[in-house]
């Protein structure tokens, strides 16, 4: 069975049972309207979208090969309980009458249990009796190639020492689900380069166990059922946690822009009065998976500061920094407009700092695994920023990369809160800025 068929079956089955639970509960209550009325159909559609969104956010639509049955059932139970609490609380706040009608709530809660029964039999059937469709992969090797790729369907084999194509060329010419690196560890640099390049894509990366000593410093790995290979995991954040992180980003950015509006207005006026030039400094940066975007900051340097030099790092006591810029930069006030980038989804509040394209290309060539920074959204602040000052050399970039990879491999809502608090202390102490 293909992944697409498995996914469609799971979504359609959930949708039918959710709709049935709603209409049975509607019929069991004292609501006067027919189950075929516009009100009933509209209410069902809204709640159906709500549930499917929650299930998707909680990673309940992964393929059977990637989940443990009882773990998924327990997670679905948790989501149903939380989802019902949110529905009931919302209904009480905005006074939706059909929720308060006697009989609807209990009947709906009981009917939703049918989802657990359906998932148990469907997932069990897929896992035990229906053979999953093998994932298509390209194998990168150094001559030591496995003869039994297990659950994978190999569409192409490429020698590590002869790899010259870009990942865009490979994906455009091959219909694949990921790549598999099978090496005895001789071509260490080539292995690191391939993993770093493909880390910026949405495709899965699998390695032979012999490569674990090479990459364990840079990334996490996950043991796969019924396979000798390991899956490379670039960050442990679940889809549900990513959703919560995005909600927190939107909430923080929205509140900050509203509360700080008087300060933002005042700074805009002062910048205009201080030196000639625009209020905002707009600069191209590289974001999630290599996507370019325009970062917005308050201008803290003279206009056209890099006109004759090109992209260069700021230095201590940099003469290009304006009088107002020397006040803004220690307190990170020039970074405040980046809340707009966060609202647009180009950045997160916490994450590796986004770098300029010219520097990214340079660092990719000289620093192994630099591309792993691009597997998460860049941030206004980050673990490297509270640990070290601005970059002034390639060695500084390497040191910061260690902190960035530490963040990527341990990313969590709790770690984001810790970095947020450390950022406040750093700003108050005026550390790490020039």
Write structural notes for this entry.
By secondary structure, the protein is an alpha/beta fold. It folds into three domains: 3-128, no CATH class; 135-233; 239-429, no CATH class. The chain has helices at 3-28, 38-57, 69-94, 97-100, 104-128, 167-173, 188-198, 212-215, 239-259, 261-274, 323-328, 338-343, 357-366, 383-387, 394-409, 413-429; strands spanning 135-141, 152-159, 178-182, 204-207, 220-223, 230-233, 280-286, 292-298, 348-350, 379-381. β5 and β6 (230-233) form a beta hairpin. It is flat.
What's the SSE blueprint?
Elements: H1 3-28, H2 38-57, H3 69-94, H4 97-100, H5 104-128, E1 135-141, E2 152-159, H6 167-173, E3 178-182, H7 188-198, E4 204-207, H8 212-215, E5 220-223, E6 230-233, H9 239-259, H10 261-274, E7 280-286, E8 292-298, H11 323-328, H12 338-343, E9 348-350, H13 357-366, E10 379-381, H14 383-387, H15 394-409, H16 413-429
Parallel strand pairs: 1-2, 1-3, 3-4, 9-10
Antiparallel strand pairs: 4-6, 5-6, 7-8
Order of helices and strands: HHHHHEEHEHEHEEHHEEHHEHEHHH
* Terminus-to-terminus distance: 58 Å
Query: Structurally, how many domains make up the residues?
Result: 3
Uncertain regions: pLDDT < 50 for 5+ in a row? Answer: none
Number of helices: 16
Give the neighbour order of strands across the main sheet: 2-1-3-4-6-5
Structural class: alpha/beta
The general outline is flat
C-alpha Rg (nearest Å): 26 Å
Task: Please bin the fraction of helical residues.
Answer: 40-55%
State which percent range the strand residues make up.
5-15%
Number of strand segments: 10
Largest sheet: 6 strands, mixed
Mean pLDDT: 81
